[in-house]
Design a protein that fits this description.
Layout (H helix, E strand, L loop, with lengths): L14 H11 L5 H16 L15 H11 L3 E4 L1 H6 L9 E5 L4 H8 L5 E2 L3 H7 L1 E5 L3 E5 L3 E3 L5 E3 H6 L2 E6 L2 E5 L2 H8 L5 H16 L3
Parallel strand pairs: 2-5
Antiparallel strand pairs: 1-2, 3-4, 4-5, 6-7, 8-9
Helix pairs in contact: 2-9, 3-5, 8-9
Length: 212
């Protein structure tokens, strides 16, 4: 490991300046650290000791929320960081993100209406914009485009992602549809924000450890 400080930086280089230099030049979370985090979490999950971090309101019934979406029959994919939480990865989120069938917006809205979630756009407006949100104390972002391009120009179609979907069981009778990990990585490239790039690193490690 490289060390900084000492004679090579001059006699007036004190500890505070050294720490500032390290903070400014330290690389992002390295692969070894990510690997250790994911491996430790998986060990805890297998032992039944790991509870994913949550930022949900105590009164919000997440199981019932997902059950209502499932029973609506709307083809809907959970995307975004909430999927990483369900996979046991060390991230936090206060939102839900879905990519749904563009022709079933009204049915999706009806399914989540009992939870006080009000859409910010009408179905027609949402189709034109390609997305909308449903809000109260919770926040749900809903993508309704038939296809979306990544920041580097790759076209990702809903039908293709849906055909490769997998499910995560929240309860005996509640399954959440999510993209395959390779497709989830593509959805993270829709915006490629710093947190998306961090999520891609975590998902890539998970994919390597759990090849299809």
């Amino acid at each position: 490991m490289r060390r900084f400080g000492g004679a090579g930086f001059g006699a007036d280089f004190d500890r505070e300046r050294e720490l500032n230099f390290l903070a400014a030049t330290r690389p992002p979370l390295c692969w070894v650290e990510v690997h250790i985090n994911v491996a430790n979490i998986e060990t805890e999950r297998l032992a039944g000791r790991y509870n994913p971090p949550d930022m949900r309101d105590a009164e919000f019934d997440e199981i019932a929320f997902f059950r209502a979406i499932q029973e609506s029959g709307v083809r809907s994919l959970l995307i975004g960081r909430r999927v990483l939480v369900l996979l046991g990865l060390p991230v936090l989120t206060a939102d839900y993100d879905f990519w749904i069938d563009i022709d079933r917006i009204a049915a999706f809205n009806d399914a989540i209406a009992p939870y006080g979630l009000q859409p910010t756009r009408s179905p027609d407006e949402a189709r034109r914009a390609g997305r909308y949100a449903a809000e109260n104390d919770e926040h749900v972002d809903v993508l309704v485009a038939r296809s979306v391009h990544t920041t580097d120009g790759v076209s990702v179609g809903f039908e293709d992602v849906w055909s490769r979907r997998t499910t995560i069981a929240l309860a005996n009778d509640v399954l959440v549809s999510v993209p395959a990990i390779s497709d989830l990585i593509l959805t993270k490239r829709f915006a490629s924000r710093p947190k998306d790039l961090e999520d891609i690193r975590l998902l890539t490690v998970l994919q390597r450890e759990n090849p299809a």
